[in-house]
Amino acid sequence: MNFLGFSTWELLLILIVPLIIEVPQVAGKSILLPLHELLYKLLSAGGKRENSEGKFTPKVSVIVPARNEGEHIQSTLESLLESDYPNMEVIVVDDGSTDDTYLKASHYATKPNVKVVRRNVASGSKARAICYGMLFTRGEIIIVVDGDTIVERNSIKELVKPLIEDSRVVGVAGNVKVLNRRNLLTKLQAYEYMVSMELGRRWQGLISGILVIPGAFGAFRREVLESLGRMHSDTITEDFDLTVMLQKTRGRLMF
């Protein structure tokens, strides 16, 4: 029997990889993730898991690298300023924008916890913009947020919680979702983010096997980030590159 020019044995060889690798993963996620969530809630309800909320709130520095994000930067900053995390500063890095990004961001510089800095000439690298922003930070925890990202009110608190509760945690991947779901393509992308990224990272987080802490929303322990030489600018995938370096520290990566 032939199908699309492939023989039966060739089709079996093609399918054997997803059957061996993907099926166990899907089955594992379907069983272990609900069990883990149930156990977490039971321990929390029973008071066995220490709740650090309200007891210790280390300084958090949110760096927003932005280049030509004039259309979105105000929405991003508004969402950050509505955060319920009490000890936070926001540093906006205008990386040589040629639109009104700096002008719009500057309106928020009057806020006591907001700094807006500008590079007149674009660095050409998001990593360089983030490293430049770190020069103006004071926080023990560094969070990177893209200039077109909307952050939910409790997201910062939830993102830094693993770093506060466990000193072994060196990085936390945020849960990134697609906000624009106006057509079939964007709806499919939203579905992909939910299945392959949200569920995938939740599964990877159980074994500290996070492959990528997303550049759009991720948190890092500052002392570890400094020890690694901050973000390296000799790559266009700075989030993946940094995640690999964090994995080499033997610290835990969470979702």
Brief write-up:
With 255 residues, the chain is an alpha/beta fold. The protein has helices spanning 8-45, 73-81, 101-106, 126-134, 155-165, 184-206, 222-227, 238-248, and strands at residues 2-3, 6-7, 60-66, 88-95, 114-119, 141-145, 169-173, 217-221, 252-254.
CATH hierarchy class name: Alpha Beta
Number of helices: 8
What is the total domain count? 1
Q: What's the shape?
A: globular
Q: Based on the structure given, which CATH architecture is correct? A: Alpha-Beta Complex
- Protein structure class: alpha/beta
End-to-end separation: 46 Å
Mean pLDDT: 83
Number of strands: 9
CATH superfamily: Spore Coat Polysaccharide Biosynthesis Protein SpsA, Chain A
Helix amount, in percent? 40-55%
Order of strands side by side in the largest beta sheet? 5-4-3-6-8-7-9
Strand content: 15-25%
SSE pattern: EEHEHEHEHEHEHEHHE
- Rg over CA atoms: 21 Å
Low-confidence stretches: 48-54
Describe the biggest sheet?
Answer: 7 strands, mixed
Describe the structure.
It is a single chain. With 255 residues, this protein is an alpha/beta fold. It has a single domain (60-254), classed as Spore Coat Polysaccharide Biosynthesis Protein SpsA, Chain A. Helix content is 44%, strand content 17%. The protein has helices at 8-45, 73-81, 101-106, 126-134, 155-165, 184-206, 222-227, 238-248; strands at 2-3, 6-7, 60-66, 88-95, 114-119, 141-145, 169-173, 217-221, 252-254. A seven-stranded mixed sheet has the order 5-4-3-6-8-7-9, with helices on both faces. The protein has a two-stranded antiparallel sheet with strand order 1-2. It is globular, with a radius of gyration of 21 Å. It starts with a strand and ends with a strand.
